[in-house]
Amino acid sequence: MASKEELKKAIHAAFDAAVPGGADYVKVYASDMKQKNFIVYRSTTVYNYAVGFKAGSTELVILPVDENKGTITAGTPVTITDANRGSVKKRDLQGRFQISTTDGQKFRLLVIPSIPKIAAGFYQLPVDQKDEYEAFQAVKSLICG
To answer: For a 10 Å CB count at each end of the chain, is N or C smaller?
Structure first.
């Protein structure tokens, strides 16, 4: 598995390549996990995101990403502005930030400052992002204003 710093660089590079002007954004790694319980087994689906924002702005760019052996593959970015922002919840029962768009897209984002490698075995990508985490908290407060 790639190191924490290599994964962080790969996530940022994928964002920069997929989003026009991506290098101008502060980027943070976010994840979400959805579980479904069935009678015989439990299904867990993990979603990984690179979230870009600019200090003092309420615009977010959410980029779904997939990781395979240290290689990050970007999905299609979703830009959320004041014009297309739907409902927002600063914190749900699992500590996730929830945001939706007026066209029905919904995201639940768990952003933490440091993810240990042991957690990567469960579902999250191991990255250290203390400074980015603090910057994201400020933007989240602006959005939830």
So the answer is: C
pLDDT confidence of residue 120: 53
Match 């790639």 to its residue by tokens.
2
Burial class of residue 145 (count of CB atoms within 10 Å of its CB; 0-12, 13-18, 19+): exposed
pTM of the model: 0.88
pLDDT in tens, 92-140: 877 889 999 999 999 999 998 887 666 555 567 778 899 999 999 999 9
70-90 per-residue burial string, b: 16 or more CB within 10 A, e: under 16: eebebbebbebeeeebeeeee
Structure tokens at 132: 């980015």
The Cα-based distances of 121 to 59, 71, 96, 125 in angstroms read 32, 16, 20, 9
